[in-house]
């Protein structure tokens, strides 16, 4: 096992293919422990592919490079092993599963607890998601409800590294503040010490989540590559003023 | 013949618990004899069908071979040839709601037995009953034939919930046939679960909803392993206005032949739906699932629909659950349990055991 150098996640020269299509090209990324970074970019730029590759979904085939988590090379680990190391992903478009309810999955998470039902209901009440507990996974849910159901699972898992794929898209203004509150809770160890946070990665297309949740660093992805990185507010302001086209031109000129 | 501890243990597989305080009454047929009859509850009668036929002349006149006429088909006519039939008579008085389920077991303890059963169940007006029937072969038993007919009469505003669990030997032949008549406002709910398939199993329960607002709901859950041929049907005749019926088949096939059928006949204004869903994990040699849900409408206000689907376990669903920390085996198990969509009391451990075997086979299928 190599040393983590204070980084919880290190991605080195990563290339990923889905079928015959190259979706990620020579990605380098480092996330220090305790920091939350953001991926910005147009649809199809590779943001979701990067998260799916980090999580280890088998459809995303690593053709080159490595992924280190807490210094351990997990490039060949399957998705379950990565989850058990403490990596979790709230997908933007998770599959629908008939007959399996959110309660079933939460019961699995809490299977070794003395009173799993109490834990489930406590979590659902504090997240205002009681009505979703007995619904089939993602069946007939609105975009916002899917986001909340995914987030509820992450809250139950309490991972040390969380990835959220567009938690702010398709969510109305009222629900956005609830999402912000839940995301803050997800990344917080102790409410009395809010600056001490768990690490993670968040994809945002429109940047609304940046208003309710502080991000340490952001990257702009273009065509499966990382272009600029830096202060999230400055990057988002630039994109709002000049659009992603300016990033594409900039990348092309390099 | 006396049931020993091993026999008692065998019965629990199908949800039949002898000596249980949460059962209202018990009757057990073992091979060719009735071996147990317990009834400490008032408001209904439970007795061998042969005793009931001797005691009540009206039983033969009004109910015996009336829902299922003696010449209906081969199964029924074979039962009609029995001079002294095995089986039970269950009669619930008007307005009586039985608190705990009545349980019955048809147990084949020895090889090569031909067990022929005839049950008659009558629920008078406003009564309610939950019936658990376990039909099974002993753990090591492979051969034999089980032929059974059951005639059920559900009175006005009465309700019968019937849970039938089967667990057979791999070389057995099993032909059950149930006929149910439901009067005005009556409700019939049938859950059928097959844990260990027979070599050949044919079931086509029939219901006649003859009173206004009567309803029938069937859930059939079948696991078909290599070497088995499973034919599950169900016909509901919606003969009166505002009647309703739901027919749902769930089958997991790991190499056998599975035919899922079902016919809804809308004779009056009614609402009816039939849904066949199959999960084909492994075909083996000649295994398949065939789903043919059917509708026949004979009234312009009959609202009827059907759907059928056959698929495998979706890899993206497995990976999704694995991304939540489940091992592949755990994920597949949760998906199969979710697909079967059943939670029959007392079956958890046995069903989990069967699902574990399916997961094993499913793993081989993906190699």
Task: Describe the structure in your own words.
The complex is a heterodimer of chains A (254) and B (367). Chain A has helices at residues 47-55, 79-85, 102-109, 116-126, 143-157, 173-187, 209-212, 232-253; strands at residues 7-18, 21-32, 36-41, 61-69, 72-73, 87-90, 97-101, 136-137, 161-165, 199-203, 217-222, 225-230. Chain A has 254 residues and is α/β, with parallel strands linked by helices. Chain A has a single domain, classed as Rossmann fold (3-Layer(aba) Sandwich), CATH 3.40.50. Chain B is α/β, with parallel strands linked by helices and 367 residues long. Chain B has 3 domains: 1-203, no CATH class; 210-217 and 227-312, no CATH class; 314-367, no CATH class. Helices cover 19% and strands 46% of the residues of chain B. In chain B, the strands form 2 sheets. In chain B, strands 3, 4, 6, 8, 10, 12, 13, 15, 16, 18, 19, 21 and 22 form a 13-stranded mixed sheet that branches. A 10-stranded mixed sheet of chain B has the order 2-1-5-7-9-11-14-17-20-23, covered by helices on one side. In chain B, β1 (25-30) and β2 (33-39) form a beta hairpin. Chain A binds chain B through residues 55-59, 78-80, 82-84, 88-89, 91, 94-95, 97-100, 104-105, 108-109, 136, 153, 157, and chain B through 314-317, 319-328, 330, 334-335, 337-341.
């Amino acid at each position: 096992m190599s040393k983590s150098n204070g980084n919880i996640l290190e991605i080195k020269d990563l290339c990923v293919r889905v079928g015959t299509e190259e979706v990620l090209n020579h990605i380098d990324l480092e996330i220090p422990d305790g920091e939350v970074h953001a991926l910005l970019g147009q649809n199809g730029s590779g943001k979701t592919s990067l998260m799916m590759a980090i999580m280890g979904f088998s459809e995303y085939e690593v053709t080159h490079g490595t992924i280190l988590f807490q210094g351990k090379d997990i490039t060949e680990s399957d998705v379950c092993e990565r989850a058990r190391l403490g990596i979790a992903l709230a997908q933007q478009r998770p599959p629908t599963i008939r007959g399996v309810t959110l309660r079933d999955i939460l019961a699995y998470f809490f299977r070794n607890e003395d009173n799993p039902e109490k834990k489930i209901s406590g979590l659902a009440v504090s997240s205002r998601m009681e009505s979703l507990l007995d619904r089939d996974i993602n069946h007939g849910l609105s975009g916002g409800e899917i986001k909340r159901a995914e987030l509820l699972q992450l809250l139950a898992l309490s991972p040390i590294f969380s990835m959220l794929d567009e938690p702010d898209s398709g969510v109305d203004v009222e629900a956005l503040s609830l999402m912000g509150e839940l995301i803050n809770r997800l990344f917080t160890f102790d409410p009395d010490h809010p600056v001490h946070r768990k690490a993670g990665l968040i994809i945002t297309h429109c940047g609304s989540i940046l208003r309710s949740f502080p991000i340490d660093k952001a990257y702009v992805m273009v065509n499966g590559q990382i272009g600029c990185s830096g202060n999230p507010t400055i990057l988002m302001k630039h994109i709002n003023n000049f659009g992603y086209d300016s990033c594409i031109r900039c990348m092309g000129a390099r | 013949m006396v049931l020993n501890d091993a026999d008692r243990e065998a019965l629990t597989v199908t949800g039949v618990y002898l000596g249980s305080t949460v059962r209202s009454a018990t009757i057990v047929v073992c091979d060719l004899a009735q071996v147990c009859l317990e009834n400490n509850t008032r408001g209904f009668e439970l007795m061998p069908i042969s005793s009931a036929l001797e005691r009540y002349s009206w039983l033969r006149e009004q109910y015996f071979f009336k829902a299922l006429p003696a010449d209906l088909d081969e199964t029924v006519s074979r039962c009609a040839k029995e001079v002294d039939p095995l089986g039970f008579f269950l009669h619930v008085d008007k307005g009586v709601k039985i608190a705990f389920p009545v349980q019955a077991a048809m147990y084949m303890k020895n090889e090569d037995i031909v067990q022929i059963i005839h049950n008659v169940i009558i629920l008078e007006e406003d009564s309610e009953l939950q019936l658990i029937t376990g039909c099974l072969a002993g753990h090591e038993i492979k051969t034999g034939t089980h032929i059974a007919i059951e005639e059920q009469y559900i009175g006005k505003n009465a309700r019968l919930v019937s849970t039938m669990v089967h667990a057979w030997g791999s070389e057995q032949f099993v032909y059950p046939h149930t006929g149910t008549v439901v009067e005005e406002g009556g409700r019939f709910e049938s859950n059928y679960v097959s844990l260990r398939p027979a070599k050949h199993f044919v079931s086509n329960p029939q219901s006649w909803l003859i009173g206004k607002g009567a309803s029938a709901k069937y859930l059939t859950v079948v696991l078909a392993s290599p070497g088995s041929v499973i034919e599950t049907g169900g016909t509901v005749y919606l003969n009166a206005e505002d009647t309703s019926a739901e027919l749902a088949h769930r089958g997991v096939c790991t190499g056998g032949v599975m035919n899922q059928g079902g016919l809804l006949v809308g004779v009056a204004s009614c609402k009816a739906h039939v849904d066949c869903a199959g999960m084909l994990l492994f075909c083996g040699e000649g295994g398949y699932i065939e789903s043919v849900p059917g509708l026949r409408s004979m009234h312009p206000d009959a609202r009827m629909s059907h759907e059928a689907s056959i698929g495998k376990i979706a890899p993206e669903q497995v990976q999704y659950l694995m991304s939540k920390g489940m091992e592949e085996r755990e994920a597949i198990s949760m998906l199969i349990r979710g697909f079967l969509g059943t939670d029959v009391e007392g079956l958890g451990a046995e069903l989990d055991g069967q699902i574990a075997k399916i997961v094993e086979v499913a793993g081989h299928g993906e190699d």
